């Protein structure tokens, strides 16, 4: 592959990198000759992200922001928790619960969502609590404080991107079934890796009510496919051509549905827009592959997990403590 230079601009801040040092120097000289600019040197901080570059890889976290967040909301002296949400946690609209300060609650949610840029381990819990921003109650505030108590003991966690990893793209897709007790909609969870590096993830409630686990998983796989197609196009701009990109799914019925065009009573009601997954499987853009539930990394984005499972998946996602990395 030829050398490339990548430039990202946010208002008047610019970060850039290249596969060749000469390209970086040439770009820097060109920009400074045209504009009044200051070179800050090697990237180590950008938009709240702390970046550590080593000979073995790159570590990204937001420990400084995390500590400031905890102090801002008076949680710096709380008791830490092992996980962001209990497996027995039950959240609904809580119509009879006591109302709380909406502005403060929304501020907490917004801050946590910003932190999730480097902390996928809190993504599901934060998105679940975010559903109740219009009329939050004490039960919702308790759940948010539980997330912060988890952060208190894990401020140094971040994403590790090892050097010299392969450029193969892999997606993981999962869903719970009727997890929302209010409207009985399911939650889709997906994550995407380039080599062993986590580069994309999401946790989102589905737009329609699924009548079976197969349908819920099929819809989630469709969301995963859409993201993969976008990433495939982005990578093609960098000269990387990928086909038959695997999507790991732990539901055999959903996998069969992506291959079999025959409609029957369990699937004929599924909206047409969800069947674009089958279309792209037939085109060879992606392929659904079975993975055992214990190895389903997207599980962490669909529901609260027991401590052991949570720790295992967190590590597999490449979310590590900075103290465990040699800089």
UniProtKB/TrEMBL annotation:
InterPro entries: DNA/RNA_pol_sf, RVT_2. Residues 5-86 form the Reverse transcriptase Ty1/copia-type domain. It comes from the Eukaryota. This is Copia protein. It comes from Cajanus cajan (Pigeon pea).
């Amino acid at each position: 592959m030829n050398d490339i230079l990548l430039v990202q601009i946010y208002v008047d801040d610019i970060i850039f990198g290249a596969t060749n040092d000469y390209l970086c120097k040439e770009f820097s000289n060109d920009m400074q000759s045209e504009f009044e600019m200051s070179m800050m040197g090697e990237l180590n901080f950008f938009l709240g992200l702390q970046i550590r570059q080593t000979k073995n890889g790159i570590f990204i976290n937001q420990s400084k922001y995390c500590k400031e967040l905890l102090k801002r909301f008076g949680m710096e002296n709380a008791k830490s928790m092992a996980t962001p949400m209990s497996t027995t946690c039950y959240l609904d609209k809580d119509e009879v619960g006591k109302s709380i300060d909406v502005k403060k609650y929304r501020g907490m949610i917004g801050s946590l969502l910003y932190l999730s840029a480097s902390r996928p381990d809190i993504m599901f819990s934060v998105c679940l609590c975010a559903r109740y921003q219009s009329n939050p109650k004490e039960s919702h505030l308790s759940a948010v404080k539980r997330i912060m108590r988890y952060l208190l003991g894990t401020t140094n966690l971040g994403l590790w991107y090892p050097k010299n990893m392969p450029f193969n793209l892999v997606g993981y897709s999962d869903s719970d079934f009727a997890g929302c007790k209010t409207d009985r909609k399911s939650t889709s969870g997906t994550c995407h890796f380039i080599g062993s590096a986590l580069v994309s993830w999401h946790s989102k409630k589905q737009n329609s009510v699924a009548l079976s686990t197969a349908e819920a998983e099929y819809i989630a796989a469709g969301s995963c496919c859409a993201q993969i197609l976008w990433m495939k196009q982005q990578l093609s701009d960098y000269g990387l051509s990928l086909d038959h990109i695997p999507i790991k799914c732990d539901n055999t019925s959903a996998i069969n549905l992506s291959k079999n065009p025959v409609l029957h009573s369990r699937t004929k009601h599924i909206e047409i827009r969800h069947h674009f997954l089958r279309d792209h499987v037939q085109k060879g853009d992606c392929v659904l592959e079975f993975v055992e539930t214990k190895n389903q990394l997207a599980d962490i984005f669909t529901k609260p997990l027991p401590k052991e499972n949570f720790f295992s998946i967190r590590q597999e996602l490449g979310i590590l403590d900075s103290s465990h990395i040699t800089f």
